Amino acid sequence: MEFTKMQGTGNDYVYVDCFKETVRDPAKTAIYVSDRHFGVGSDGLILICPSRTADCRMEMYNADGSQGIMCGNGVRCVGKYVYDHGLVDKDKRTITVETLAGIKTLELETEDGRAVSVTVDMGEAALTSRLPEDITVDGKKTRARKVNTAFLGFPISEGRHQVEIVYHAPGAGFGKLLSLLGAFMAAALVIASRKRSAQGIQNLP
């Protein structure tokens, strides 16, 4: 299997050109090549594949073999690879890449037939979480919605924001009730014990 290792701001992946190569078990391959002691050493594996809806398709696997949704640095390296290796027209300065997070648009700067700078439009930012939280942005309550079926999230504009996230543990209300009942029962036992002790003292001969 032929591969290329590239990095974007230190985020390094092993890339395989699936226009001419076939990776039968990408999850297992990702674990093997990512090992920094016995493999190639990387943050994961990215397959560069043909696409029916974009210039190419990016299939990403993390170092543990799980499939990733998208990586900004990874997709930028994909853009450089497909341009440098002639998988897109050399007159192009805008490239589209199909990902599990949708089609991403890349802008290229080139010199002497090679891409020297690649930027990607990542779309509108979204904070994501697995937790059922109350979220306030700039003093306004925001309702979370599903993002990529596995997370909760909401859109925010670029810039600085004050975000407050309050997590309510499942069963916390019931736990508080049990604690109050326990405290009440303990207080009742103490009072009853003191009454019995007082009665015992009064009945001494």
Written account of the structure:
The protein is built from three helices and 13 strands. The chain has helices spanning 26-34, 72-84, 172-202; strands at 4-8, 11-17, 44-49, 56-62, 94-99, 102-111, 114-121, 126-129, 133-137, 140-142, 145-147, 151-155, 163-167. Strands 1-2-3-4-5-6-7 form a seven-stranded mixed beta sheet, with helices on both faces. A three-stranded antiparallel beta sheet has the order 8-12-11, with no helix packed on it. Strands 10-9-13 form a three-stranded antiparallel beta sheet, with no helix packed on it. Strand 6 (102-111) and strand 7 (114-121) form a beta hairpin. The relative contact order is 0.09.
Q: Which strands sit side by side, in order, in the main sheet?
A: 1-2-3-4-5-6-7
Task: Indicate the low-confidence ranges by residue numbers.
Answer: none
Structural class of the secondary elements?
Answer: alpha+beta
Please give the largest β-sheet. Answer: 7 strands, mixed
Task: Give the helices and strands as they follow along the chain.
Answer: EEHEEHEEEEEEEEEH
Describe the oligomeric state of these chains in a short phrase: single chain
CA-to-CA gap between the ends?
Answer: 99 Å
Radius of gyration: 29 Å
- The number of helical runs is 3
Given the C-alpha coordinates, what overall shape results? elongated
Give me the count of strands: 13
Report the helical percentage. 25-40%
Query: Residue-averaged pLDDT, rounded?
Result: 86
Proportion of residues in β-strands: 35-45%
